[in-house]
């Protein structure tokens, strides 16, 4: 298989996935009970003409397939529709909130990877010893702390008691934003560290018992070099695969942390929008998360052969 | 937070039910788990505060937390605490609704009522919008006419429902012609229905007017400077503001949106936010013991009621409605839901909306009404008389705040004590909101709770809602005598004369119980240690309350 064909195949699969996702995302809204227009009027007494006009303004009077076509055509033009709750273009509603979530997810993702890999590696290299058990138990405890509990504890200690960090808001400018998002990203990261930590540990344990590692060690190659060149590098594959899932997970989980820290990201927006029947916003965010997931997996697919040359030659070579 | 799913009605036929849908989730500070335990909590010491100490001087800026982000700052859609409490500081109405719920001239320096069908407003001179352009009568016509435009779908349409035309009839004069006498229209001009925006801005911003992109350009003491979606709205003092008496004492005010009640309380405790309206009762003692600021209580127009939404069922018999109310432990409810802050009541209005009433009307409205103090014996005999033993009722609630849980459980207990069965159905806050707008959502539902406030200084606004066929007459209650009284009262301009008919209406509602009134609770306010100078009142939805706040 040539590289070009492989990429084309991947791209085709990606587009098909996105198309199917768009169908699912759009039509699932018709399964949700409730009338968007009555929400739009929020219980106020409307005039009859107003109800008709408002329905037409949002295209809610059209048959579902036509609404879907309009939506997809709009998407292709970068038009995601209009938010019912904010009476504003969805691109603006989401565009205002996306930077916060991206920053939060990036910071949390970094914490997860660094902490997870370090802890996992420490455990693997000390397999069976007290330190290994200590790390494993620690990770399990971290993984059992729900984000909102983590958030409450972090706020109580570092904002209210010590006053080191702000308890809400996302700040202005890069430095201030990093400062404001420190506690939230830690709260968000906690649950996911266990995932990366355990994957790292088992991948490395697996590698450590491989023949070439044992051979290298017996030939007197320094342990640090063996660990770096062989063990860690070969363990990166599974870690990378997990990272793809991690990003989507972080975006979804961000809603809880965003709510606790009063951040306006797309996570909290998604939750609000579902409750408010603001379908254009829900559809756009869900599609965004699906895209992020698909794209992350594509990136992992592309990176994999680079990290592990064996997989470039196809599974048969293993 | 009690005040979330409150609904409010508007003047005349109107009754616009407002349900602060989303807010709700936010306010669920204590959650249902707390329900039973909270009764044992210490009662809160409270008294009504009319005003706080005058500022020692101006202040550069202060921040206020709100439990939700406004959906829009377009006055046509401003119909909830979050929207109105912010909008009130930047946009002004023809009349001004003061903290004591009196009306005084606003952007109209005067109004006249030359014929029963017309209201004539004289637009104030020397007022400028925040972009520096002068306020004209044409701006008033354009702003008011939007409520009549179906494409806008104004939430305040009910105020305008009897309007035939809105015309400029002089250089500074706007004449509103009604289809018939309507005393309530003018009373509505102190709220968002009377807001005046620049006609040029309305035309220029179009569909984006009032959202976080388009913003507003009004005449108030503060000018909208930025709206960070989902996070905050910042306003700065407008230096050319026309009313010296309400010139902003703060150079800037920032409203931060904190949907999570714990986050809000933490921010108040740590001093990173200076104040908030409507702090959850559960947080009052923590805030007080933190010792950095004051929790205050102000005048409200809201009454907590259980709406009887099915009069074809067992509650169609007035004896059963009375029995249920007589069986309720309303003092206990007040204690459990609000830590004792508030008073039980037998009527659906508060004295604050009876200010222009005659003495006779006030006596008739509050003294000559039936008291439903808990009386199980009487309740049981009413049930027996009605032959309603064993009847089953459906009560719908939502996990919105502590009071919702307390009241639903108290209703179950009251019913059980007189041989009725109440089944509680818990729905999402969103589905709960549908009860207020969608008749199909109310099918099979006998009872639900609401806290209902009035946005005009006239008790008649409450009772308009209960006329036959009204949008917010959720149970379809109908009483020809009541309807006739309302129909006549609406046409009477003299507030004292009108109040006597309103008192009649209140007497009928008190006897017939289309809704079961429980209590009235004040509006709560937290002020941090840096600021002072506000008048705590539910008028914060329409009055530029932030303008008077300065340095403590």
Largest sheet of chain B: 7 strands, mixed
Helix content of chain B: 25-40%
**Unreliable residue stretches of chain A:** 314-318
Q: Kindly report how far apart the N and C termini of chain B lie.
A: 27 Å
Q: What is the general shape of chain B? A: globular
Q: Compute the number of strand runs of chain B.
A: 22
Question: Could you please describe the fold and organization of this structure?
Answer:
The complex is a heterodimer of chains A (318) and B (552). A two-stranded antiparallel sheet of chain A has the order 1-2. With 318 residues, chain A is mostly helical. Chain A has 13 helices and 2 strands, in the order ααααββααααααααα. With 552 residues, chain B is of the alpha+beta class. Helices cover 28% and strands 21% of the residues of chain B. Chain B contains 17 helices and 22 strands. In chain B, helix 9 packs antiparallel against helix 12. In chain B, 63% of the residues are buried. Chains A and B meet through helix 2, helix 3, strand 2, helix 5 and helix 7 of A and helix 1, helix 7 and helix 14 of B.
Comma- or semicolon-separated keywords:
heterodimer, A: 318 residues, mainly alpha, two-stranded antiparallel ribbon, globular, B: 17 helices
Topology, element by element:
The complex is a heterodimer of chains A (318) and B (552).
Chain A: H1 3-27, H2 36-40, H3 48-57, H4 64-76, E1 82-83, E2 88-89, H5 90-125, H6 130-143, H7 147-161, H8 174-208, H9 211-218, H10 223-260, H11 266-275, H12 279-307, H13 309-312
Antiparallel strand pairs in A: 1-2
Helix pairs in contact in A: 1-4, 1-12, 5-6, 5-8, 5-10, 6-8, 7-8, 7-10, 8-10, 9-10, 10-11, 10-12, 11-12
Chain B: E1 6-9, H1 21-27, E2 59-66, H2 81-87, E3 95-97, E4 103-105, E5 108-112, E6 118-123, H3 137-145, H4 157-160, E7 163-170, E8 173-178, H5 183-188, H6 199-205, E9 222-228, E10 232-237, E11 250-257, H7 261-270, E12 275-277, H8 281-290, E13 294-298, E14 303-308, H9 318-327, H10 330-338, E15 343-344, H11 359-366, H12 376-386, E16 392-397, H13 402-417, E17 421-426, H14 429-434, E18 447-454, H15 460-464, H16 480-491, H17 495-512, E19 515-520, E20 523-527, E21 531-532, E22 550-551
Parallel strand pairs in B: 1-18, 2-11, 2-12, 16-17, 16-18
Antiparallel strand pairs in B: 3-4, 5-6, 6-8, 7-8, 9-10, 10-11, 12-20, 13-20, 14-18, 14-19, 15-19, 21-22
Helix pairs in contact in B: 9-12, 9-13, 10-13, 11-17, 16-17
């Amino acid at each position: 298989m040539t590289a070009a064909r492989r990429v084309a195949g991947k791209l085709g699969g990606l587009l098909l996935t996105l198309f199917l996702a768009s169908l699912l995302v759009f039509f699932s809204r018709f399964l949700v009970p409730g009338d968007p227009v009555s929400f739009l009027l929020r219980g106020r007494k409307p005039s009859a003409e107003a109800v008709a006009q408002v329905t037409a303004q949002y295209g809610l009077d059209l048959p579902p397939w036509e609404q879907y076509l309009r939506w997809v055509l709009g998407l292709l033009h970068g038009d995601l529709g209009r938010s019912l709750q904010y009476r504003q273009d969805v691109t603006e509603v989401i565009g205002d909130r996306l930077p916060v979530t991206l920053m939060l997810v990036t910071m949390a993702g970094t914490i997860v990877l660094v902490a997870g890999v370090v802890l996992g590696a420490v455990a693997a290299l000390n397999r069976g010893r007290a330190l290994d058990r200590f790390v494993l138990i620690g990770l399990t405890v971290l993984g059992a702390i729900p984000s909102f509990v983590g958030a409450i504890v972090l706020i109580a200690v570092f904002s209210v008691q010590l006053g080191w960090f702000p308890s809400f808001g996302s700040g202005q400018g890069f430095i201030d934003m990093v400062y404001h998002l420190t506690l939230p990203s830690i709260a968000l990261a906690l649950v996911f560290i266990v995932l990366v930590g355990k994957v790292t540990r088992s991948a490395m344990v697996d590698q450590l018992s491989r023949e070439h590692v044992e051979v290298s060690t017996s030939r007197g190659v320094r342990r640090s070099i063996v660990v770096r060149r062989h063990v860690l590098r070969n363990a990166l594959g599974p870690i990378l695969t997990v990272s793809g899932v991690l990003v989507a997970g972080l975006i979804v989980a961000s809603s809880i942390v965003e709510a606790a820290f009063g951040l306006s990201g797309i996570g909290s927006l998604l939750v609000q929008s579902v409750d408010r029947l603001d379908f254009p916003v829900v559809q756009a965010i869900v599609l965004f998360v699906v895209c992020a997931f698909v794209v992350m997996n594509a990136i992992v697919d592309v990176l994999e052969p680079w990290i592990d040359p064996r997989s470039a030659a196809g599974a048969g070579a293993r | 937070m009690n005040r979330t799913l409150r609904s409010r009605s508007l003047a005349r036929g109107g009754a616009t039910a407002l349900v602060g849908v989303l807010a709700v989730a936010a306010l669920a500070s204590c959650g249902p788990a707390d329900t039973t335990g909270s009764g044992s909590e210490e009662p809160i010491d409270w008294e009504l505060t009319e005003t706080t100490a005058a500022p020692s001087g101006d202040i550069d800026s202060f921040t206020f937390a709100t439990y939700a982000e406004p959906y829009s700052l377009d006055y046509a859609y401003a119909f909830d605490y979050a929207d109105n409490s912010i909008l009130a500081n930047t946009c002004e109405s023809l009349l001004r609704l003061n903290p004591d719920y009196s009306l005084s001239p606003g952007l109209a320096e005067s109004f006249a009522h030359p014929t029963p069908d017309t209201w004539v407003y004289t637009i104030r001179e020397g007022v400028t919008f925040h972009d520096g352009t002068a306020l004209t009568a044409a701006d008033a016509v354009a702003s008011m006419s939007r409520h009549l435009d179906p494409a806008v779908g104004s939430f305040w349409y009910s105020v305008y429902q009897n309007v035939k035309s809105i015309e400029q009839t002089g250089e500074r004069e706007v004449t509103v012609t009604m289809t018939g006498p309507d005393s309530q229209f003018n009373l509505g001009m102190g709220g968002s229905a009377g807001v005046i925006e620049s006609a040029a801005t309305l035309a220029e911003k179009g569909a984006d007017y009032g959202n976080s992109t388009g913003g507003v350009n009004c005449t108030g003491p503060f000018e909208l400077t930025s709206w960070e979606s989902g996070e905050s709205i910042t306003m700065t003092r407008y230096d050319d503001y026309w009313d010296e008496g309400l010139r902003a004492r703060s150079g800037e005010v920032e409203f931060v949106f904190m949907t999570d009640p714990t986050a809000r309380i933490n921010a108040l405790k740590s001093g990173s936010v200076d104040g908030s309206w409507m702090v959850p009762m559960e947080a009052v003692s923590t805030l007080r013991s933190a010792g950095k600021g004051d929790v205050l209580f102000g005048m409200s127009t809201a009454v907590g009621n259980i709406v009887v939404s099915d009069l074809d069922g067992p509650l169609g018999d007035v004896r059963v409605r009375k029995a249920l109310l007589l069986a309720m432990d309303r003092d206990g409810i007040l204690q459990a839901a609000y830590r004792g802050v508030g008073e039980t009541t037998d009527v659906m209005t508060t004295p604050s909306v009876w200010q222009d009433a005659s003495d006779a009307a006030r006596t008739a409205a509050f003294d000559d009404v039936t008291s439903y103090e808990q009386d199980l014996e009487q309740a049981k005999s009413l049930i027996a008389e009605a032959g309603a033993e064993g009847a089953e009722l459906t009560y719908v609630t939502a996990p919105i705040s502590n009071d919702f849980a307390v009241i639903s459980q108290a209703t179950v207990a009251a019913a059980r004590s007189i041989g009725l069965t109440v089944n509680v159905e818990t729905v999402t806050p969103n589905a709960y909101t549908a009860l207020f707008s969608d008749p199909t959502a109310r099918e099979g539902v006998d009872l639900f709770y609401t806290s209902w406030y009035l946005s005009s200084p006239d008790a008649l606004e409450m009772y308009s809602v209960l006329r036959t066929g009204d949008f917010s007459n959720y149970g379809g209650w109908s009483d020809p005598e009541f309807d006739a009284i309302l129909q006549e009262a609406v046409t009477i301009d003299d507030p004292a004369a009108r109040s006597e008919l309103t008192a009649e209406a209140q007497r009928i509602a008190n006897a017939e119980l289309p809704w079961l009134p429980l209590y009235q609770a004040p509006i709560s306010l937290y002020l941090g240690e840096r600021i002072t100078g506000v008048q705590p009142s539910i008028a914060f939805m329409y009055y530029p309350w932030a303008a008077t706040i300065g340095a403590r």
